[in-house]
Amino acid sequence: MGAEDRAKESDPPRAKALPLGPVAPMARGLPPELVPARMVNEVLYCERLMYLEWSQSEFADNHFTAEGRFSHRRADAPGGALPPEPQPAPARARDAGPPAAAPKPEPEREPEPEPGTEPKRAKRLKRPIEADGAKDGAKDDDTSDEPEAEPEEPIPYKARSVWLSSEALGLTAKIDIVEGDSTGRVTPIEYKRGHPPDLPERAYLPERAQLCAQVLLLRAHGYSCTDAEIYFAGARQRVPIAIDAALEATTLAAVTRARELATAAALPAPLVDSPKCNGCSLVGICLPDEVNLLRLLEGKPLEALEAPGPDEPQTPSNVDARGVDLAPLLELTPDADPWGLYGKEGAEDLEIRRLHPARDDELPLYVQDQGARIALSGDRLLVTGRKTGRLEARLPNTSQVCLLGNVQITTQALRALLERGIPVSFFSSGGWYYGRATGLDSKNIELRSAQHRAAADPGVCLDLARGFVVSKIKNCRTLLRRNADAPDPVVLFELDQLARKAAAAESLAALLGIEGSAARVYFGAFTGMLKGGAVQAGAFDWNGRNRRPPKDPLNALLSFAYSLLVKDFAVTLGAVGLDAMLGFFHQPRFGRPALALDLMEEFRPLVADSTVLGALNTGVVCEGDFLISPAGVAIHAPARRRLIHAHERRMDQLVSHPVFGYRISYRRVLEVQARLLGRVLLGELAAYPPFRTR
Q1: Integer CA distances (angstroms), 486 to 81, 212, 489, in order
Q2: I want to staple 93 with a disulfide (CB 3.0 to 4.6 A). Which of 89, 433, 475, 663 is the partner?
Q3: Which one-letter DSSP state was computed for residue 447?
Q4: CA atoms within 13 A on the CB side of 578
Q5: Would you tell me how many other CB atoms lie within 10 Å of the CB of residue 396?
Q6: Closest listed residue to residue 8, CA positions, set 59, 56, 80, 81
């Protein structure tokens, strides 16, 4: 099965792909009434993919899905008509609804000729001959003087985007093309990108089962249907698919299995080192290799070892698909910090593939020119500022829009951003994060329900909060060791002891006190990491952390950097499907993104503090870039712009993940960590894997 065809039931293509079409998530324990034929394809290809896409309504695009949607651009447009009402349907299908068809009939067009063959000539009707999807206007070159014979075959029919359902079969499907005649004999045609595989059947089993489901639906509505076809757009070739009793049994079994998985309301285990993961658009959501490694480090066996094919040798149960002996990992027992096991003997043998991109192609748009206006022109945002003039930003290259202060945005531009799932974040002119406007939230109701259950459990909240605080303290200690010319051994010792106390804290209140003590120790040594002109100026001396408003330039820089980071986490959590307002360490409070504050704890020193130190030590921000008054300190707009650039450069910097080993950007790390937290909440992982650098 190709990942490119999963989005064909969504809206027409736009500059930025929209989420999957209207597929409602399954309620826990409630069996679905109808299984889409596309899910028959998915469950035979990968059960985890089917559950993510159908039960949890997760979807993501890549170039394969975009190409597949382009191949379906004509077939997805409803049109044409089915043959006239067939003979009464059998009793087993009487509960099926009437066949869906557009009212406007369309004459049949000849299929795309195979390479090297001559197209068939139309002898019955004087009309152009065209392949489906080709342009009109090809001339009929039949110059025979003989009179045209009366048609010997019934008048053909063709319908596009036909949606059928049958409660008896428990199936529903949107069929790309249905060709037929007045006798009720029809043939479904499914569009696929690419070329037919080099197999005797000329198609993989998931595709053939999807066509078989469509055939069964057509039969249930009284039509005579014995075969089907797949049109491969890359080869411009139609491949016939034989429908036999064995394929029908496989298809019905797949329908039953899909319903069982949805009813169980439990995410199936990921595949192990499977080539199917390469090119899957949902691999960044599924995280198969990451989940498998973390389960091994927890001492859990892998549950998704794929059965070898008929020509593949059998392997012992403790050997994975590549022949790697997993016995050393299976014998590991987790402790209070199971992720500390990474790097021990045997763990390095399990190679983790980076199946998702290291960086995002899309970038944020920041607008801070007071009085600026954002309008829409086609697929571009036009930013007109009083000082900056007129600038443009393409929607396909925009990940989010951040408005600082009095910046206007038109309704058309805001609607276009929300339609494409691009969030719009609002800040005060000084950088205080107010919130964001976004389109429809994630449809993954299972994840949000699990988050609310976990937040109501004090034990779960304490376990997660311990991990967040311990990681923050350890990363603060690492930052001091790396950047201070002569780090105070007493400070490093105190931070190490406070991290140990945080790991054993017995309540959130005690943990909050330990976190405050660690912050005082860390910020007491913070200026020791300043170098060069930042030290000589003397303007960045301070007496510890203060805010609301900040009383000195260094605190103003830190507050603004933290505001940018919490915004990034809030946007990431919304995209993942978690509620940014419901946290575990930071308890819910009106207007506070508690979960974003939770997850950003371990990234404060790594991203925000590091950005501020780099900006000061390299002269990006200097003493004259601040407005100092008795009420507080604010950053001038030019310096704020330079700090935003420094923050975005930091977010795009590649870093080696301490657990998985591959290199990805900090922006991608935020998404990976958020999705792993979701796996913990859903019960797939026992503990949240913290991000700690050495």
Answers
A1: 80, 71, 9
A2: 89
A3: H
A4: 33
A5: 13
A6: 59
